[in-house]
From TrEMBL:
Residues 173-240 form the GFO/IDH/MocA-like oxidoreductase domain. GO terms for molecular function: nucleotide binding. Residues 18-135 form the Gfo/Idh/MocA-like oxidoreductase N-terminal domain. It holds the Pfam family GFO_IDH_MocA_C3. It comes from Bradyrhizobium canariense. Signal peptide: none annotated. This is Uncharacterized protein. It comes from the Bacteria.
Length: 339
């Protein structure tokens, strides 16, 4: 896996200022612009969005210039862009940037299909530009603490819960592509292994697309993993537990409390401790890592191939046919919402 870079890397690199743009000024793109505007050694050249109201908001937030289309940004001259436009546009926008030898960070999921993702990866490789995928959860300090706690351990199983209420703006994807893809990436990253078996259970209780998913996996290394995700829970929860032969690690990704149980004794006793967890903003750490990879030419922290692999598993979850018994008992229609 590539180097994550750090704040000190950015300071050291700051002599070589990079001209960076953001494509898409919605929820994520606004955050990209806010963070990039404050990074040393980085010039935020501007933000692209077709919606005037979103351009105005970006200017108010960062004071940067805005453009109605990508060509105008490219004409200004940029070394790198982050792409936070809707997922179905990632392919077209990434290819256009790569064609101009611009380094690219694409938000997750990398694209709408595996084929589109592979085309982005191939184009970046041909052009020799850095391509990173915005799996920001890897930069959550609680996730980093879990990764460190299980390093060198014999991992047996992983369970991840990522639930919450419906997002205010419904996109055209369900919980598997929108939420579970984060955790598919974490399972692949924690185990450093590919997912080889997929057993999905999906349901649409309220939305057109799946809004509940219970996903089970087996990795090539033999780890069993489970994701519980939905948009039907009235509060947000993001929890990770990892069982290894020697430890049981529990992390709350929101409160950033990570605890490990270890030293299991035959009498059932064990030790427990809270692990130190950093305070970095995950998106800031991610963008620093991207710019570090651009400057160093090194392998980015989340490669295009890794982004494609996680998308491929998410799509497989959607395409795996329900067994006949499961299909027979599937919900006939959306649940009636009371009130
Ligand atoms: N890493 C994460 O945790 C995370 C969280 C949320 C969203 N995302 C990803 O970020 C991307 C954007 O999601 P969002 O929630 O910010 O969506 P959003 O709808 O809030 O924002 C998308 C923006 O892109 C703009 N846009 C549309 N067409 C464009 C074009 N041709 N060029 C430039 N901009 C264009 C829209 O006007 C809008 O402002 C998606 O791929 C999503 O999966 C990632």
């Amino acid at each position: 896996m590539g180097s994550n870079g750090s704040a000190s890397d950015v300071k050291a690199d700051a002599k070589q200022s990079l001209r960076v743009g953001v494509v898409g000024a919605g929820v994520m793109g606004s955050n990209h612009a806010r963070v990039l505007a404050g990074l040393p050694g980085t010039t935020l050249v501007g933000v692209v969005d077709p919606l005037p109201a979103h351009r105005t908001r970006a200017t108010e937030l960062t004071g940067c210039r805005t453009f109605a289309n990508l060509d105008e940004l490219i004409a200004e001259g940029v070394d790198a862009v982050t792409i936070a436009a809707p997922t179905h546009l990632h392919h077209e926008i990434a290819l256009a940037c790569i064609a101009h030898n611009i380094h690219v960070l694409v938000e997750k999921p990398i694209a709408s299909s595996v084929e589109e993702g592979q085309e982005i990866v191939a184009a970046a490789a041909r052009a020799g530009v850095t391509l990173m995928v915005g799996h920001v959860e890897r930069f959550n300090p609680a996730v980093a603490a879990i990764k460190q706690a299980i390093s060198g351990e014999d991992i047996l199983s992983i369970a991840i819960t990522r639930v919450g209420p419906f997002p205010p703006r419904m996109s055209n994807v369900g919980v598997v592509i929108d939420l579970a893809v984060h955790d598919i990436d974490l399972i692949r990253w924690f185990t450093e292994s590919d997912i080889v078996e997929v057993q999905p259970q999906l349901s649409s209780a309220v939305a057109e697309r799946e809004d509940i998913a219970l996903l089970q996996f087996r990795t090539a290394s033999g780890v069993l993993a489970h994701i519980n995700t939905n948009w039907l829970t009235p509060f947000k929860a993001r929890n990770v537990t990892v069982a290894t032969r020697g430890k049981y690690v529990m992390g709350d990704l929101l409160t950033r409390q990570v605890t490990e149980c270890f030293g299991f004794k035959p009498d059932g006793s064990y030790s427990m401790r809270h692990l130190p967890v950093g305070h970095d903003e995950p998106l800031r750490a991610e963008l620093i890592a991207f710019l570090h990879a651009v400057r160093s030419g090194g392998i980015p922290a989340v490669t295009g191939d890794q982004g494609v692999a996680s998308l491929e598993i998410a799509i497989r979850c959607l395409e795996t046919p329900a067994r006949p018994a499961a299909a027979a008992s599937a919900r006939k229609g959306p649940r009636r919402v009371v009130g």
